[in-house]
Design goal:
Butyryl-CoA Dehydrogenase, subunit A, domain 2, eight-stranded mixed beta sheet, Butyryl-CoA Dehydrogenase, subunit A, domain 3, Butyryl-Coa Dehydrogenase, subunit A, domain 1, binds flavin-adenine dinucleotide, 50% helix, 392 residues, two-stranded antiparallel sheet, alpha+beta
């Protein structure tokens, strides 16, 4: 199917992903979706993504990365998600968890951690959300207390993408000596935590895999407890009190990734619907001949293209080094809602064969899509970000 490309390199990426998906995604998609045990992190897939060089795409060349543009990376995520929304796993490692290290870390931190993240040897997690601090991320209760050359950290985190298997955390905390500043966000700091040594969790850290996740099952989601965890002060990321800025800056870019995830799902729902509508015969003719179906296809195609324009506009702004916070929020908001719209129409077009997972991928797309409107800032939070800028 025709897909609008911002530049020629995008088609090469789409072709490369198609070949990768034939070998590493399509044969395992169903199995990954139905596993429900603590070891269900998609290790084989993650290793294949790393071996292919996909994990390293956005990271700087001097630390083992490929330094590709945001447009190219967005294409990679869109296309992977066309085959399986598992690409959220890649995105969480690269744009969410490694980005703050190579953007805000010291040279020593970058040298120590980024090459391992780029090669897939290390799995980092972005550890912000707490039971009482989701949309209200400033309300952090995890506290770091300075103690000589170390911080002692206590707290609890929830909903952390592969937080159950990660060996490295970019952890957000409230710093006990955050100064007299009353503004809560200015007490938040980011700390790199080497959560595992030789594969074993360090003293004080406990993790659990969250069960019965609706979709995106090839990527696990974890809960993390920290009790008197000692971390060297040299692991502070950026400055004390700059953690909230680091988190928000990271989320700006990562939201383009979520938009790309939604876009990939929406495109797949559209393609499946076109193929099915041409094959399915009702009242003696393919349902594609019915105007009711044609209108649904037209609406889906229009949503997909509009989502694509917004998503690549944000990526292009990021590549130009311009501000893109609003555009990233608009892209994430629109593309995630476009994905919901398209998957819903796809299910209608497929009838019972959409609702039952053994007949088509629509039931899986329905479950996978839903998180787009929740993680990395809910749709309501995106609307807040957008409107506050326009009303300023
Ligand atoms: C599968 C999954 C993966 C995730 N991965 C990560 C991760 O890797 N790292 C991480 O740190 N977090 C992660 N999250 C957490 C995710 O970002 C939060 O769930 C999300 O930000 C919403 O927070 P909450 O669930 O606490 O909902 P709440 O903040 O409690 O929101 C509940 C409802 O209230 C609405 N609401 C809240 N405040 C406002 C407001 N001011 N105006 C209007 N409406 C409002 C929300 O939009 C929502 O509808 C993940 C979550 C899931 C489910």
């Amino acid at each position: 199917m025709f897909r609008y490309n911002v530049d020629d390199r995008q088609q090469a990426i789409r072709d490369r992903v198609a070949a990768f998906a034939q070998k590493h995604i399509i044969p395992f998609s169903k199995e990954l979706d139905h596993r429900d045990d603590p070891d269900r992190f998609a290790w084989d897939l993650f290793k294949a993504l790393a071996k292919e060089g996909f994990v390293a795409q956005r990271m700087p060349k001097e630390y083992g990365g490929c330094n590709v543009s945001s447009v190219e990376y967005t294409t990679l995520i869109e296309e992977l998600c066309y085959y399986d929304a598992v690409a959220c796993l890649l995105d969480a490692v690269t744009e969410l968890a490694t980005y703050p290290i190579y953007t805000f870390g010291t040279d020593a931190q970058k040298k120590k951690y980024v090459p391992k993240c780029a090669s897939g040897e290390s799995i980092p997690a972005f550890v912000l959300t707490e039971p009482g601090a989701g949309s209200d991320a400033v309300n952090q209760k995890t506290v770091a207390v300075p103690d000589g050359d170390h911080y002692i950290i206590n707290g609890e985190k929830i909903f952390i993408m592969h937080g159950d298997v990660a060996d490295l955390f970019v952890l957000f905390v409230k710093m006990a000596d955050g100064g007299d500043d009353d503004k809560a966000s200015r007490k938040i700091s980011a700390i790199i935590v080497e959560a595992r040594k030789d594969g074993k969790l360090i003293p004080g850290i406990k993790v659990a895999t969250l069960k019965k996740k609706m979709g995106m099952r090839a990527a696990t989601t974890g809960r993390i407890w920290l009790e008197n965890v000692r971390v060297p002060k040299e692991n502070l990321l950026g400055e004390v009190g700059k953690g909230f800025k680091i988190a928000m800056n990271t989320l700006d870019g990562a939201r383009i990734g979520v938009a790309a995830q939604g876009l990939g799902i929406a495109q797949r729902a559209l393609q499946e619907s076109i193929d099915y509508a041409k094959k399915r015969v009702c009242f003696g003719a393919p349902i594609a001949k019915l105007q009711a179906i044609q209108w649904m296809i037209a609406d889906m195609a229009t949503q997909v293209e509009a989502a694509r324009m917004l998503t690549y506009k944000a990526a292009q702004l990021q590549d130009k080094g311009e501000k893109f916070t609003i555009e990233a929020s608009q892209a994430k908001l629109f593309a995630s809602e476009a994905a919901k719209f398209c998957v819903d129409r796809a299910m209608q077009i497929h009838g019972g064969y959409g609702y039952i997972g053994e007949f088509s991928p629509i039931e899986k797309l329905y479950r996978d899509q839903r998180i787009m409107e929740i993680y990395e800032g809910t749709s309501e939070i995106q609307r807040l970000v957008i409107s506050s800028s326009y009303l300023r």
